[in-house]
Every structure is written in C-alpha cells, then in structure tokens.
Design a protein that fits this description.
heterodimer; A: alpha/beta; B: 3-stranded antiparallel β-sheet; 8% strand
C-alpha cells in the first residue's frame, strides 16, 4: 500500500446483498457483521394511483421500505457496510441509493426459486454494478450445480457463481472475498485496456 | 409503554423535528461516516441547542465511535430522510464531521483500487 489516507481520515464502503424474499440476506449479513443487523427505514410518498386504501389522504400514499444492514471494521480507518435490499423489488427508488458508490453486489439464489433473483440481476446489469451469484445451500443441500444455475440465469461467463451457507461466517467471508477479487480483477483489466 | 422522549418511528414527530423539511442541506450517503467534532462535544456538555436529537447523535458519534448515517437512522428509529436532514444541519453547524465514502467510479483511479485492496485484505484477516 503506497499512500494511506492521512491520519484520522476515516472512510467507508458498502456491498449490496440482494435476492428474493426469504433467501437468507439478513442471515448472511448477520453471520459476518460485528453488530446485530440493524434496520433502517425510508419513506416514499407518491401519488396513490390505483391504490384503494388511500381515502384518508386523497391522492397520496406513503410506503415504508426497510433495509437490514451490518458492519465490518476492516481496519482502524475503514468500515465496510453490508446492505440487504428491500424484499420487494418494486421499491426501486431505494435500490438507486443502495447501489450508488457500492463495491458490488451479492445476488443470493435459492435454486428452488430461481426466478426470484431475475429482477436484481437485471437491475445490476443495467447499472453496471459488478455482482456475483451466491447459491445459498439450505441445510447443506445444493440442489443444482453452478453451471446449471449459470445457464438458467443466462449470465455472462465471467460472473462468478459460488455456493455458500449464509449461516456460516467463513462461508460468507469467502463470498465477500470472491466478490472483491472479481471487482479488482475487472478494474485492473479495464484500467489497462479501456473500452 | 415507551418513554415519551424516546424517538419513535412514528411519522409526525420526525418531520416535526426537521420542521417539515424533507430536503437536507447536504446530500449524505447511506454509508457516510459521522463523527462528533470538538465543537459538537462542547455543545453536548452545555446541553446543546438543537434539541434532544442533536444531543443523541452527538453522544452516539463521540469518542472515536464513528457511525454511518444508516446506523444513526436505525438506532434513533428515524426514517432515513429525516436523519439525513438532522445530520446535515449538524454538519453545517460544525457539530459533526461527515466523511463521504471513497468514490470507485473512476476505474483508473489508484485511490479506489487501494481501497478495494484494503477491503480484500481486511476480509481475509477476519
């Protein structure tokens, strides 16, 4: 490391953890976080078109979107945050904020409900956010191999597909390491040969 | 029964705290780190002028315990937008310092690459 930031200059980074409802996002965050995962809420106010339960405040509705997150102190001056995406993919406004400045994303997949992750993959590809696929092996069982999943998701051959047990700290750690290695490799490749 | 002075997740009170403002004076990232300044600390000891939310945040982020905007919002049970308005006010009054995350946008930028390398070696040491 050539030049460390000057003393006292703390900084942070974040990784986004995406995937369908119940796929284990919060479990994964909790397995490596130094704090019990916290929940932060954002409120969206929008015109309540097509919503029938807005008689109290005509034309308006508010939606609360909750995100779970955890924290890892990388070193004294650098904190890494892991943010789980809101369960419902229709809350895109929050996803914009989540991906801004992120290192990359982990897309968690339950092979029994593969389609649940399609929206997240589309979103990250559109935003050019690097991501990898982490197949969460519930009860230690992997129902499909990585190549089957890759084929089914029709993702590019360079996107890493790894297996994990979201409850296991070492396993989660390895998923995050794989993601950062992938991001660094892509970055170095592009820095040498800009598109 | 929760204590009346405890911040709650209810909508009315948070926006009363910001006097109805929803736009912060400063855009602050979710993961931006907040640290209480010397001025913020002395304000805290004098009892502060910005109300209990300012006090709470100044105490939370004091003594080297930097916290992200997301943590402040979560721990105070305030919606993110409300916490952002309050922290931005405190920053503009010099009560807290806000450290924005290092940008990774420029792929040829050595600072971003170095940050990623630090994250990687930190994760390996975990």
């Amino acid at each position: 490391m050539s030049h460390r930031p000057s003393a006292g200059r703390v900084t942070s980074a974040k990784i986004v953890i995406a995937g369908g409802f119940g796929v284990g996002k919060t479990t994964l965050v909790g397995s490596v976080s130094e704090i019990t995962p916290l929940t932060t809420e954002a409120i969206m106010t929008s015109a309540g078109v097509g919503v029938d339960d807005n008689r109290q405040v005509p034309g308006k509705m508010t939606t609360t979107v909750a995100m779970d997150f955890g924290r890892i102190s990388i070193d004294r001056d650098l904190i890494l945050y892991l943010f789980g995406t809101p369960g419902q993919t229709r809350f895109w406004f929050m996803w914009d904020e989540l991906v801004r400045g992120a290192i990359g994303a982990v897309v968690m997949v339950d092979t029994r409900r593969l389609a649940d992750c399609f929206a997240a993959i589309d979103f990250f590809e559109h935003r050019r956010l690097p991501y990898l696929i982490a197949i969460n092996c519930f009860d230690g069982m992997q129902y499909h191999n990585a190549q089957d999943v890759r084929d089914a998701l029709a993702i590019s051959s360079d996107v890493p597909v790894v297996s994990c047990d979201a409850r296991n700290r070492e396993s989660t750690k390895n998923v995050l390491i794989s993601l950062v290695e992938y991001v660094l490799t892509m970055r170095r490749t592009r820095a040498v040969a800009p598109a | 029964m929760p204590e009346r002075d405890e911040p709650t997740g209810a909508l009315v009170r948070p926006y009363a705290v910001t006097r109805g403002r929803t736009r912060p004076k400063l855009e602050i990232a979710l993961e931006a780190l907040v640290e209480t300044t010397v001025r913020g600390r002395s304000g805290m000891m004098r009892g502060g002028q910005g109300g209990s939310e300012h006090q709470y945040i100044a105490e939370m982020c004091d003594g080297g315990r930097v916290q992200s905007l997301a943590e402040i919002a979560a721990r105070m049970q305030l919606p993110l937008g409300v916490a952002r308005v309050i922290v931005a006010d405190m920053a503009s009054d010099g009560l807290v310092a806000v450290y924005e995350p290092t940008s990774l946008d420029d792929e040829t930028d050595a600072v971003g690459t170095e940050l990623l390398e630090r994250v990687l070696s930190g994760l390996r040491r975990l």
